[in-house]
Amino acid sequence: MAFAKKINLSGQSASTKGDLVFYCLMLLIPLVQIGIFYFGVNFQSIMMSFQVYSTVDNTFTWDASRNFNLFLNDIKEPWFWSMVKDSFVVWVASQFAGTVLALLFSYYIYKKRTLSKFFKFVLFLPSIIPGILLSLIFKFFMNTATPVFMNKLFYGGERVVEALLQNPNLYFWIITIYSTWIGFGSQVLVYSGAMDQIPTEMIEAGKLDGVTPVREFFSLILPTVMPTVTTFVVAGVATIFTNQNNLFAIFGGNLPGTDQTIGYYLYTMVSGQDSMGNYCYASFLGLVSTCIAVPITFVVRKILQRVGDR
Amino acid sequence: MGKKKLGSLVGSPKEKASALTIAIFIILIIYFITLIIPIIWAFYSSFNDWKEFRSFYVSYLDFPTKLVIDNYVTAFTKFEYEAYTTNISYNFLQMFGHSVIYATGSAFFFTLVPLIVAYCSARFKFKFSKVIYAFVIIAMALPIVGAMPSEMRMLRNLGIFDTFFGMFVLRMNFLSIYYLIFYAQFESIPMEYTEAAKVDGASNLRIMFTIVLPQALSTIVTVFLLTFIMYWNDFQIPHVYLPSYPTVADGLYYLANSGETAINRDPIKIAGIMGMTLPIVIIFAILNKRLRFAVAAGGIKG
Fold first, then answer.
1. Out of A8-22, A26-40, A186-200, A230-244, which region has the weakest mean confidence (pLDDT)?
2. Backbone φ and ψ of B167, nearest 5°
3. Which has the closest alpha carbon to B101: B158, B151, B163, B155?
4. CB B262 within 8 A of CB B97
5. Residue A291 forms contact with B (CB below 8 Å)
6. What pLDDT was estimated at residue B261?
7. Are B98 and B90 in contact (CB under 8 A)?
8. CATH code, domain carrying B217
9. pLDDT value for A12
10. What number of other Cβ atoms are within 10 A of residue B218's Cβ?
11. What are phi and psi of B81, to 5 degrees?
12. Looking at the domain assignment, is residue A123 inside a domain?
C-alpha cells in the first residue's frame, strides 16, 4: 500500500481500500491515453524534429541538421515571411477586431435592446452550421453572384467583373474579413453570460452618478468581464500558428506560398497522399512555433492582466 | 430613419437608446444581412435549372423561374467519392453513415473520459486528484503546435491509423474545458449523499451511476450534444486521419471541388451542400436553447 500512502496524504474521506481500487481502475485508461497521446506524442514530436523519413524503406532515421537546414532555406524565401505576416494579420483580425465586435454585441444583448434575443440566435448560427458549408457557400457567392451584382451596380450590366476570390490582390483580405466576421459568435454568448453576472446595484449606482453608456461600458462592464476576455485572447495565441483562415476549405491544397498562413502550410504538409515524407519537417516547424507561442502567450497574458488591473 | 426614431426603436422599456446602442444595432443589422444573404442565395440557387443558370451571367442573381428538385436528386445519386487509400467509392448515404459513427463515437468518448476523470478527482480527495486538476490547467494553458505528424505516426505504430477505433482512442482525452465543467458540477454535489449511500452499503460504482451522475445528467447530455455537433462538422481531422472513411463534411469539400461531369454544375453542387447539412440544421432547430446554454458555459470550436 505504498502507492496508497503516496496518493492519500490528505487523509480525508478516501481512506478505504475499495475507494482506492475504484479510483485506480477508473483512472487507468484515461491516464494511459494521456501517457501515450500527450506525453508520448509530444516527446516523439520533439524527437521527429531531429529525424528524417525515408520513403524508400519507410523508416525514420536520426539527422540533427536536415530539418534545421530546410528551415534556414525557407526563411531566406520571401514567401515564408509573407506567410508569417499573413498569419499575424489573421490573428490580429480575429483576436482584436473579433473581440471588440463580440464585446459590443454582448453589451447590446446584455442591455436587452430591441431584437436582442434574435441577434443572439443569429450570432450563434455560425457556431453550429458546419464551417465547411459556410465557407463553400461564401466561395460560390463571391465567385458567381457578387461579380454580377457589382457589374449591375457599378457598370450598368456592361462589363464582366472578375470573380472576387480569383483576384490575387483581394482574396486574402476578403477571406480574412469573412473569417473574422463569422468567428466570434460563441464569444458573444460567453461575454453576455459574464455580463449577466454583474450586480445590478453596481449599474444602478453608476446611473445615479450620471455615467454615460460609453463610460458605463468602459468603466463598469469591461473591467468585470476582463478575466473572461483575457482567457479567450490568451487561448487564441496558438492560433497564430494553427489558424488556416478557411483557406483549405475554400482553395484546397493548391494555394501559392505567398498567400498561405502557417496553419495552412503545416496542415497541407501532412494531409493527402504520400505526406509521411513531410512529417519530420512539419514536427520541426511545430517545435519552432511552440517555442515562439509560449513566450507570446505569457506576454499577452501579462499585458491583458495589467490592462484589467487599470 | 432619424436618430430620434431609431433611438426609440433600439431602446428598451427601462432605458432610452444611446448613440452607442444605436451604432451597435446598425452593425448587427449589417451582420445579419451579410450572413443571411449568401444562405438565402444558396438556397434558392439550389433549385435553379443548371441549364439556364449559365446561359446568361446575370442569372446568378435571379430567382428560379421553376423549382428544380432534380439538382438534389442528381447530387445525392450521382456524387461518389473514391477514397485514395482503398479505391472504394462512397455515396452520400455511406458518407452519412461514416459521419454518424465518427461523430457519435467521438462525442461519446470525449464526454465520457472527462466525466470519469472529473468524477474521480472531484469526489475522491486524494492528493493525486489535485495533481490531475493542476495538470489539466497547465496543459490547457500551454500552446503546443504541430503535434499532428507525431500523433499520426503514433496511431500508425499502434496499427489503428485510418480506423474509427483509432479516432475513438484519440478522443479518450480529458484535457478539455469539459473536464473543468464536470469537475465544478461534481464538486458542488454534497458529499453527504455519497456518505449516506455508503452507510447503506452501496458500492462506488452504484453511487456514481445512481446517485451522482443523475444529478449531472443535464450537463452530460448538453456536453454530448455539443461535442456531437463539433465532430459532425469536423472536416479537417477526418480528412487526414480517416482517409478511407470519408464523412459528410469531407464529402462537402470533395463535392464542391469535384470535376465529375454529372455533377459539375454550380446549382447541383449547391444543392448537395445544402442537403448534406440538413441533419445538423434539424438537430439545431430542436436543441437550439440547450446548445446555446452549453456554448455559454464552455465555448465551442468551430
1. A8-22
2. -65, -40
3. B163
4. no
5. no
6. 67
7. yes
8. 1.10.3720.10
9. 47
10. 13
11. -120, 130
12. yes
Q: Residue A297 maps to which CATH number?
A: 1.10.3720.10
Q: Contact, A287 vs B148, CB < 8 A? A: no
A99-148 residue pLDDT tens:
999 999 999 999 989 899 899 888 888 877 888 888 888 988 888 888 88
Nearest to B120 among A23, A131, A141 (CB): A23
Domain count, chain A: 1
**For residue A49, what is its C-alpha cell?**
524534429
Q: How many domains does chain B have?
A: 1
In this predicted structure, what is the pLDDT of residue A14? 47
CB contact at 8 A, A132 and A189: no
Q: Which residues 204-223 of A are in CB contact (within 8 Å) with B?
A: 212-214, 217
- pTM of the predicted model as reported, rounded to 2 decimal places: 0.86
Q: If you average pLDDT over residues B150-170, what whole number do you get?
A: 96
pLDDT for B301 equals: 38
Burial class (CB in 10 A: 0-12, 13-18, 19+), B42: buried
Asked if B291 is an interface residue toward chain A (Cβ–Cβ < 8 A), one would say yes
Would you state the pLDDT for residue B14?
Answer: 59
Q: List residues bridging with B82 in a β-sheet.
A: B89
Identify all chain A residues contacting B151, using CB atoms and an 8 Å cutoff: 37, 41
Q: CB B145 to CB A283 under 8 A?
A: no
Q: Is A189 on the interface with B (CB under 8 A)?
A: yes
B42·A125 Cβ contact <8 A = no
Residue-wise pLDDT for B71-108, tens only, equals: 888 888 888 888 988 999 998 889 989 999 999 999 99
Please give the residue range of the domain that contains residue B246: 81-257
In Å, what is the CA distance from B188 to each residue of A23, A260, B75, B178? 19, 47, 51, 15
A114 touching B (Cβ < 8 Å): yes
A113: how many CB neighbours lie within 10 A of its CB?
Answer: 22
Short-list B10, B256, B233, CA closest to A125 = B233
The boundaries of the domain holding residue A234 are: 77-309
**A293–B143 C-beta distance less than 8 A:** yes
Tell me the angle at which helices A98-110 and B19-45 cross, rounded to the nearest 10 degrees: 110
- Mean of pLDDT values over B196-221: 91
Residues in chain B, overall count: 302
In a domain, A101, yes or no: yes
Instruction: With respect to residue A10, please indicate whether it lies within any of the assigned structural domains.
Output: no
- Is residue A238 a part of any domain in this protein? yes
Closest Cα in chain B, distance from residue A92 (Å): 17
Backbone angles phi, psi at A11, to 5 degrees: 60, 30
Report yes or no for ipTM above 0.90: no
**CA–CA gap between residue B280 and residue A192 (Å, rounded):** 25
Backbone angles phi, psi at B143, to 5 degrees: -85, 90
